[in-house]
Amino acid sequence: MTHDDTLVWFRRDLRAYDHAALYAALSKSPRVHCVFVFDREILDPLPSRADRRVEFIWHSVRELQQALVTGGGGLVVLHGRAREEIPALAARLKVDAVFANHDYEPAALERDDAVSQALAAAGTAFITCKDQVIFEKSEILTLDGRPFSIFTAYKNAWLKRLDGFFLKAYPVEKYFDRLAVDAGPSMPTLADIGFEPTNLRELKITPGMAGASRLFAEFKKRMADYHERRDFPAVRGSSYLSVHLRFGTISIRALAAEAWHAANRGAAVWLSELIWRDFYFMILYHHPRVVSHAFRPEYDAIRFANNPDLFRAWCEARTGYPLIDAAMRQLNTSGYMHNRLRMVTASFLVKDLQVDWRKGERYFAEKLNDYDLAANNGGWQWAASTGCDAQPYFRIFNPVTQSEKFDAAGKFIRHYVPELANCDDKFIHAPWRMDTAQQAKAGVIIGRDYPAPAVDHAVARQVMLDLYARARDG
Ligand SMILES: Cc1cc2nc3c(=O)[nH]c(=O)nc-3n(C[C@H](O)[C@H](O)[C@H](O)COP(=O)(O)OP(=O)(O)OC[C@H]3O[C@@H](n4cnc5c(N)ncnc54)[C@H](O)[C@@H]3O)c2cc1C
Asked: Is the CB of residue 273 below 6 angstroms from any atom belonging to ligand 1?
């Protein structure tokens, strides 16, 4: 079906190339308007006015606007409630269809439903496209037509289904002469939308398509070694592209294509991580109840102790376990946490401190630059052993042995916990094992300069095993 004027609504897809909705609109209509809404429904409830994600989005939207202007068009940038702004703009521009890319989060789906109804009432179509994943919804199912819940089986089916077709870029540039130039309000400043600059620049996080492509170019040189380097937080082993994938400043098709064609061990393991991302979107789509419930309902019965002091100690990096505290300081100061450490800190909160995984999940949601409901919820439920493909509840990360294995010389710990910088390698992972003379020599008195461990891992482990067994046995 062809259309007259259409409108493309950008959301978490802030790029002007390889863009499914933009391509669909451009290829079907002679004039395409573009819009981004700083949605007050999302922004107003954020607890901090200095939010790296908002600043990241702001810069990315500005870059997108410049790219569209360079292409001969423009981008209307609004600040308001998207569910009202989009139908109003569609009416003002007299478009007969609004295009957007699929979202899979329940709140976004509810908003899209409301927008779709408002548009329909005015005779305007709302057309959505798959863009942020390779396979979505029910594209990959078990042989008996059900959604997978085991990752390896899903991954095998995903790889079997993959061919070049699914990795092809949408050539939007071909139709850029159809972009419309709209006279609208000028782009609001960060202050206009109620936010302040953060330490994004200091952290050397470059937003937008330019930042993403630079990062990816650098990662491509390291991709072949990914499988060997990715687990060590003091080593630059992973891609650091998560925030760009979150806001769509890079195309998932471009990344998956590169990994698929590279055909080496590192690339294959990295492609697996991209498949985990599809997997969790698929889980959220089919099981929206996971947002507040355990994927495996029997684990909703766990009676977590939820000691507020222990939760605060975890948030504030005062658990006395150096790797945990270093990881939490990385999160609190930069909005990033290495994947291995996300697994270990999440496991520690739930299984050592016996705090409900939902509290940790909310804390990560507040702090992570790359916060994504599907991946974060999936990661937390995996670590808490309550989810699909969870690690069994009786397998519990030991925070000291994890530290010895993945930060052997304590390089990561020394960076984030300088109080322990002078500890011997032998004690850096468990500094409470130093006697008084050794503590004096290292310049750190445990209990004064650095906390004593908040819990005894061996004891906590047993308590946790009982909690889980009781929940599981009803
Ligand atoms: C408790 C917990 C919470 C997490 N919360 C998030 C989150 O909110 N947002 C998020 O993007 N990732 C989350 N992850 C997954 C993973 O830790 C991050 O994607 C990764 O650390 C980002 O760094 P990177 O870009 O260098 O990853 P790379 O190792 O380079 O991986 C490439 C990309 O694959 C995707 N990816 C990698 N691992 C996973 C995974 N396990 N699940 C889903 N996608 C994955 C990400 O988009 C990532 O950018 C979480 C993991 C855990 C255990």
From this structure: yes
